[in-house]
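User: Hi! I have a protein structure encoded as tokens and I'd like to know what sequence might fold into it. I'm fairly new to this, so please keep things simple.
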């Protein structure tokens, strides 16, 4: 049974590229023009080099992450610039961006000042979360309260009916002393 004729120019281009995968864009355009089919170079490029058709539910393809992928490590065994900055900051906590850049350059690692600033910002952002706990501990009489203790107090307050009920209970406790 003979094959059905392609229904559109796109199908014709796909068939030609399938039969001649090494053909360049202009070669495809010229060959199809010789067959009496006018196609533009942009159509050929879109079919040959373009991404899947997003309108039909296809999405941009993402790189598959393998099980041995480690953040901060490149496939050739070297570390990324961000990881190098984090390690440098671990060894030199008060270092300024220019100092970090100079220190890493001595190690043969080239990083931009902007990347250093970004990594430092995100590192201090993580530290700021622990500052909330420390500031809450300041309200205690010089005794630091751990995060675990604060969570237990919160659970207790919720179980008793809220902070106001805890305050009432503490006032009643003071009267008993």
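Assistant: Happy to help. Inverse folding works backwards from shape to sequence: for each of the 177 positions I chose a residue that suits the local structure. Here it is:
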């Amino acid at each position: 049974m003979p094959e059905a004729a392609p229904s559109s120019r796109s199908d014709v281009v796909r068939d030609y590229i399938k039969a001649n995968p090494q053909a360049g864009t202009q070669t495809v355009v010229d060959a199809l023009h010789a067959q009496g089919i006018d196609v533009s170079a942009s159509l050929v490029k879109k079919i040959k080099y373009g991404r899947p058709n997003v309108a039909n539910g296809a999405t941009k393809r993402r790189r598959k992450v393998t099980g041995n992928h480690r953040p901060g490590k490149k496939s050739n065994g070297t570390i990324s610039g961000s990881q190098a900055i984090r390690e440098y900051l671990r060894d030199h906590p008060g270092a300024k961006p220019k100092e970090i850049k100079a220190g890493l350059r001595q190690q043969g690692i080239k990083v931009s000042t902007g990347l250093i600033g970004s990594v430092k910002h995100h590192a201090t952002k993580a530290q700021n979360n622990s500052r909330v706990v420390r500031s809450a501990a300041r309200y205690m009489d010089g005794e630091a309260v751990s995060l675990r203790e604060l969570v237990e107090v919160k659970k207790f307050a919720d179980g008793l009916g809220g902070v106001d009920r805890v305050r009432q209970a503490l006032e009643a406790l003071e009267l008993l002393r």
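A useful reference point when you look it over: The chain has three domains: 9-52, 78-143, 146-177. Feel free to ask if any position seems puzzling.
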